[in-house]
Every structure is written in C-alpha cells, then in structure tokens.
Amino acid sequence: MRDAAGAVRSWNSNHPKRRWNLKATRKALVINYDLRTMSIRGNMLTLSTVRGERRIRTLMPETPVWFAARYPARQLNAAKLLIDPRTRTARIALIYRVENETPAADGDVLGVDLGQHSLYTDSRGGETKSNKIWGAKRKYAHNRKTLQEKGTRSAHRRLKAMSGREERFIRDVNHCASKRLANSPNVQAIAFEDLTYIRRQATKCTKTGKRRRNMLNQWSFSQLQEFTAYKAAANGIRIIMVDPSYTSQRCNRCGYVDARNRNRARFDCKRCAWSDNADHNAALNIRDRAIASLEHNHTSTDRPVDRVQSTTRIDGTPTMTSTSDDDGRVVGTTFTSKPLGSPQR
C-alpha cells in the first residue's frame, strides 16, 4: 500500500497538469486453500467458494510417475489457485508435505564463500564465476536505458517484452549453482556466511562508491542460499550460518588477521607468508568456524530452514514456491487449466 501511494505521489509531482486518475488493475488473483476448504477424490479437485454451497470442481491430470515414486508417503497440505484475468486462465498449485531425509551423521563440512566476482568458492576448491550474471545485468540495464530514452510506442513494447527476462536468467544460474553445492559428495553440512546486514554498506552515508553500492544492491546471495538450503535438506544435509567477520582477512594457516593480507584475488599472509586464492582462504575459514560450532554444539549459529521454498510444475519444470520446516519439507505440483467455467454445486 505504501509503495502504491508513493507511486501516485511521484506521478502527481512529476505531472502536475495530468494528475493520477487511472483505475487499479489486478494482474493476478491468488487464493489460498487448506484441507478445510478443498478436497481431492480420485482426480476430482473440489474448491470451496464464498457463496456457501457453491463449489468449483475440475479434473486434474494424472500424477507424474516420477513424482509418485519420489514421494510415496506424501500428504496433501494446501493448494493455491492463481487466476490471470488477462488470459482468463487458472493454475492450481498442490502443496504436499513429505518427511525430510535423515541428516547425515558423518561426512565433511563444506565452507562456501559467496562473492560478487565469483558466485561462490567452496573449501574443496570448487568455484563458479559470476561473469554471466554481471554481463547480463549490464546488457539489460543498457537496453532499458536506451529504450526509455527513445520513448516511442515500439520502445515501450520492447520494454514490456523484456520484463522478467533478467530475473529468470539469474534464477536459473542460482538454481544450477545451488544444485552443484547440494549434490556435493560426502558432505554432512554446508556453511555460509550470515550476510543479513551486508547491504548497510550500500547506503550513501558510507564511503562506498556508487558502482560498489549498485553491485551490493543487485547481489542475489540470499536467493542462492535459499535454493541451496531446500536442495540440501532433500539430501539430508544441514545448513550452518556463521559470523562473517574477518573471514577474508584471516590467514587460515596461522590465524593472523590483517587487511593487508588480501590483495584482490590473492591472499598473502604478512606473518607466515602463506599464499592462496583469497576466496578459497575465506571458504576455509568459514568451514573451520562451522566445525567449531558443531563441536561445541553452538546451535545459535544455525539459521532454521523453515521458510525454504520448492514447488514443481506437473510436467517437471520448477514454477512456484512453498514452505518447509525442520520436521518436514513441502513439495508440490502445478497444472494449468482452461478458462474456468461457472462454479458447480
């Protein structure tokens, strides 16, 4: 509501002779259902409406064989009805609850250092560069600026067609990277830095430059952590969040902390002269802090993975999100119906 009010105020201040008089339009309608307001009998899905005895009934496609085989003990938990008034189509997302895999009792702790130049570097030496992400961001930013300056109807059509492409591309890159991390062999835990307050460096009152602030604001580290968390939970791997203080300045060999130890991508300890890749050295420090927290049973460093999100389209493509908790995770299926007819009794 505040964002909408701010948009109206901004429009009125920028266009004093053409004040806001447009009617609000809803792009999509989302209705949440639980077991009290929905039921499934065979392939018949019944949804309640606000009109009392009136119901919406629709036939669902067959459950995919791979989905039934992977989650044999699934229990229906909830559903979401998404109606798009522009295309007059509806989608049903069925959300099931399944038990988490038993956490691995043995294995290594994998430390992961997230960065802006390298998407991630782990303590085993694995690395994924972020060149594609920043290249795509620069390309889309340039195209948006050029089309907005053009201002023609054709340019507005191109802007509309471009909307969402950048976000979908970054989500795909993060999904691929998180899958590689979650499928790491012989791992019982994955350790990340808790970067909750990293964006405080992006405020104008700090000495951070404009380019650096923009990169911090566009850094999707939280999305990569969330994707890794629910994929790791499916494999029985826990997630540990550690204090990020001085992980990039501390020598993993002797423990000496000095800002001069790191010079861009190189780490050269001023005390013991040990040299390594700077991101790999930070990943080793993150791993050691996670191991120390496990040994001393410092559970306060663990972030509860209770809002992990994961859903799957009925044909197997990821589409939507749902929730998970410590006792179980949630998976789901989605199918798109034809335009809904009138509700049935």
From TrEMBL:
Pfam families: Cas12f1-like_TNB (PF07282)
Region of interest (Disordered), ranges: 295-345
Compositional bias per record (Polar residues), positions renumbered to this chain: 308-323, 333-345
Molecular-function GO term, any one: DNA binding
Transmembrane segments: none
Keywords in alphabetical order: DNA-binding
Protein's recorded name: IS200/IS605 family element transposase accessory protein TnpB
InterPro entries: Cas12f1-like_TNB (IPR010095), RNA-guided_DNA_endo/Transpos (IPR051399)
Superkingdom as given in the UniProt entry: Bacteria
Listed Basic and acidic residues bias regions: 295-306
Domain Cas12f1-like TNB: 221-286
